[in-house]
Amino acid sequence: MAVRIYSLAKELKVDSKELVDLCTQIGITGKGSALASLSEDEVVKIQDYFKGSGPKASAKGGAAAPPPPERPRQMGNAGGRMPVIVTQKPSGPLSSLRKLRDEEQPTEVEAEAAQELDSALAAEAPVAEETAAAPPAPAAPSAPAEPEPPRSHGPLAGVMRRDDYVGPGNMSGKPPVFEEPKSGNRGGSGGKPAGSPPPKARPAIKLAPMPAVEPPKPLRGKAGGEQVMKPDMKLPADAMRAGKSGSKPLAAHLRRHEDAVDAAKKAKALEEENAKAAKRGGRGKPMIGGKEGEGGPLLGGREERQLARRRTTRPGDEDRPMRGPRRARPKRRSGVSSTVPRKERISIQLPCTVRELSAAAGVPGVDILRILMSEGAMATLNTQMDPDMTELIAAELGIVIDFKAPKSLEDEFLDEIRSMVDPEESLVARPPVITFLGHVDHGKTSLIDKIIGMNVVGGESGGITQHIRAYQVDRNGKRISFVDTPGHEAFTEMRARGANVTDIAVIVVAADDGVMPQTEEAISHARAAEVPIVIALNKTDLPGIDFDKIYQQLATNDLLPSEWGGDVEVVKTSATTGAGIENLLDTLLTVAELHEYKANPDREALGTCLEAQQMADRGVMAKVMVQNGTLHVGDVVVCGDAFGRVKSMDDTLNSKLRHEEALPSMPVNIWGLDVAPAAGEHFYVLDDIGLAREIAEARAKRVRSEFLSGVAPTHVTLENLFDRLEGAVDVSTLNIILRADTRGSIEAIRKELGKLEHPEVKLRILQAMVGGVTEADVTLADASDAIVIGFNVVPDERAKSAAEQRGVQIRRYEVIYKIADDLKQSLEGMLKPEEREVDLGRALVQQVYKISRVGAIAGCRVLGGIIARDARVRIIRDSTVVGDYAIDTLKREKDDAKEVREGLECGIKIAGFNDVKEGDLLEAYRIEEIGRKFDS
Ligand SMILES: Nc1nc2c(ncn2[C@@H]2O[C@H](COP(=O)(O)OP(=O)(O)OP(=O)(O)O)[C@@H](O)[C@H]2O)c(=O)[nH]1
């Protein structure tokens, strides 16, 4: 199992940074960070180093038996240790390729890569003239007596490309022209000194010196004459098209093609030299494909063994060309996408592997490998590709590609922590966290004041809450935590950052004012946060209160009071007299009991920063809410771009009171972070200060670059809805914030939208209010990934710029049915499309041409309908379907064809299938995705 460096460092009691350095020293490469994973062998190597006489081991007295941790902790199932994260630190996706290039000798990886690629291609190409075309160049024939050049072992050594292809209609075309890669240093990268940094944007090019090759012998005709029977192959059609458009790699490709003539000359010269060497009795080029004793040169031990392996034929294979050992591998795995329809547009996260790209695009992996090979990059299905290479491949395949942002270190870490499940037995009840929301001056702060018995309102400038406050109080032995926010925007801001610290929302409504616009907003915000709502009907000490009117207003906002038979608790309070406060606390505790809020106090803490500030004398003070686990003085904490060791913890009510630990749901002021984190940032505890620094720095860097690039985050829009939903099947709710000119309009719109019902998708109106679109609406939309709809109203300037900044879509309408139509269309886009098979046509295989390194080409005549390039074909032999594959290449005469019509001849290369036979029937079909309709 892979182990993270920092985990091992912790086990060995060494600094993880030092361990990273040590890895390089002892030859474990590619470990640039403490988050990098180590294989079992690498772990053993490091442990051996520590067991031995390494400087670290002797300095620390060995690490064989590290002392027990200072404080036993539990991290979910991890048995008291931070879990091992198996995700890989994103390293340069082409680094493996570059590594292959930079290494002097072929490594195991290289050999494996070579083998896999070779196998993938070979499975496609059990070909007649393989013997002439593909020796893996075990010895450099041009210099038989000298040691082999370092890069001569790659399977690409000896790879030749056909430069042309003649379809069945032109079977007596020119003999194939082979292209020889320039020996030594193609692309200029092979001559770089080892260790010099690889060029950034270009793919690493695997170089292989060219072995001496015989020009291919033309196939003999049936009569045994020298008639040319096999068609030439030209460059892949995509490559030709892209080359014309001027893409650089393809220009290189074409240049190489022009070099083929030189290469052929060179090959001839090499051959002559080789023949001379053979005559001299030296170690010549192994004879491949010839019969034993047919005058081949004497072979050395290795060559002899290789040759012997090549001569091994399977029963029934006598007539087939001899195969190398690699071709005897079982099934190739490159058909990963054989059942996925080919896509025109894909969205993929980088770095991605060949296999992932193949699966996402519905293109056979071998096609991608072939493109990589044509660029000189040797790869396997598991090779990671960088954005440039991925884009290049997408262009070659004619696919539009959108990149998803890669996961940050922090995301990786958070994901890991979030995915940790606390064992049921470790969970204990925790105090509920209550947030007070409501219209300005309705008495939120006064109520909390009354509850905790202090007077904060008096101390606030202008009597308006300026800061987030958080307190914990004791109620008959049960604790309750309160959060007092300056307004619902602050509450929603926090949600927008993914931080929802609230368990229960108390909406404070002043009895003399009733439900005000901001009360409605607060209700929407609480509802969007999906937390239970309790109404505190405050200022009931005032005279002339019309309770029925307020209950009616609440009911209009879908909050039917329990007194009226609904499920919303309305508690009448007075912050001035204290009436109803006890009742409010009891109600809150009852709701909390119903919801059974639980946490595991025995794990490392995680929570949210509510507020932070830099104090001139003591450094950074952060007010945090512990949401799970227990935070201790001395813990290493990372919070957004801040990190540090907790030096001390103060009580939030009494700053002179120090805490040694903070349990779940406890707000506490912590000291010791290097900078003030933003409100709403998650904090979590790590064991390693070096790792905390690394994560914080990575975060700071990301935030800075996002700020500089000015890229707004993308939220849902009616247009991108469909794209966003691709691959995120579980997302089936479209959130709406509605603003309209009158209540009547809102009702009419609600009614229209109510008709858009479907079991698979849902429309959720988070907020429906009269008036123009405000900044608060945008904040809510931002936090809830919603679309703002304005009916006969406009957004104000602040709302407009906030929407721009946050990437929130505001759509304006003047006709109700248009809203319904647009939303209907969007919801239809959310329905998973139906896949339907469309029959295209049939073709009869009249002749099969086997071409080295390309595979079998079926020379066909279209019997009916059409054969299309992007179709799949069922191969029917003796009335039985023997396979179902995608078409790789479709040619008409010499040219690539998009489709070939009835009665015409064409050449078809079937992706991943070379066993096509004369007389086979190819039935072409296409899988079409049909968008579903709401009423279907
Ligand atoms: N009569 C009466 N006045 C109250 C009551 N509760 C609060 N007030 C008064 O209402 C005013 C506003 O109270 P706050 O607690 O500051 O209201 P708030 O909702 O926290 O206001 P913001 O901090 O601006 O959001 C103050 O002058 C309070 O004295 C009450 O129950 N009865």
Give a verbal description of the structure.
- The protein is an alpha+beta fold.
- Among the domains are: 3-51; 345-404, no CATH class; 431-596, P-loop containing nucleotide triphosphate hydrolases (Rossmann fold, 3-Layer(aba) Sandwich); 731-829, Rossmann fold (3-Layer(aba) Sandwich), CATH 3.40.50.10050; 833-931, Translation factors (Elongation Factor Tu (Ef-tu), domain 3, Beta Barrel).
- The chain is flat.
- The chain binds guanosine-5'-triphosphate (GTP).
- Guanosine-5'-triphosphate is lined by residues 438, 440-446, 457, 463-465, 538-539, 541-542, 574-576.
- Belongs to the TRAFAC class translation factor GTPase superfamily. Classic translation factor GTPase family. IF-2 subfamily.
Topology:
Blueprint: E1 3-4, H1 5-12, H2 16-25, E2 37-38, H3 40-51, H4 55-60, H5 95-102, H6 108-124, H7 130-133, E3 161-162, E4 178-179, H8 237-244, H9 248-279, H10 301-311, E5 345-349, E6 352-353, H11 354-361, H12 365-374, E7 384-385, H13 387-397, E8 400-404, H14 409-419, E9 428-429, E10 433-438, H15 444-452, E11 469-475, E12 478-484, H16 488-496, E13 504-510, H17 517-528, E14 533-538, H18 547-556, E15 569-572, H19 581-595, E16 598-599, E17 606-615, E18 619-628, E19 631-632, E20 636-639, E21 642-650, E22 658-659, E23 661-662, E24 667-673, E25 682-686, H20 689-709, H21 721-725, E26 733-740, H22 743-754, E27 762-770, H23 775-784, E28 786-791, H24 797-806, E29 810-813, H25 816-830, E30 834-851, E31 855-868, E32 872-877, E33 880-892, E34 895-896, E35 899-901, E36 905-910, E37 921-930
Parallel strand pairs: 5-8, 10-12, 10-13, 13-14, 14-15, 26-27, 26-28, 28-29
Antiparallel strand pairs: 1-2, 3-4, 6-7, 9-16, 11-12, 17-18, 17-25, 18-24, 19-23, 20-21, 20-25, 21-22, 21-24, 30-31, 30-37, 31-35, 31-36, 32-33, 32-37, 33-34, 33-36
Bound molecules: guanosine-5'-triphosphate.
Family: Belongs to the TRAFAC class translation factor GTPase superfamily. Classic translation factor GTPase family. IF-2 subfamily.
Domain Tr-type G: 429-598
GO molecular function, one term: GTPase activity
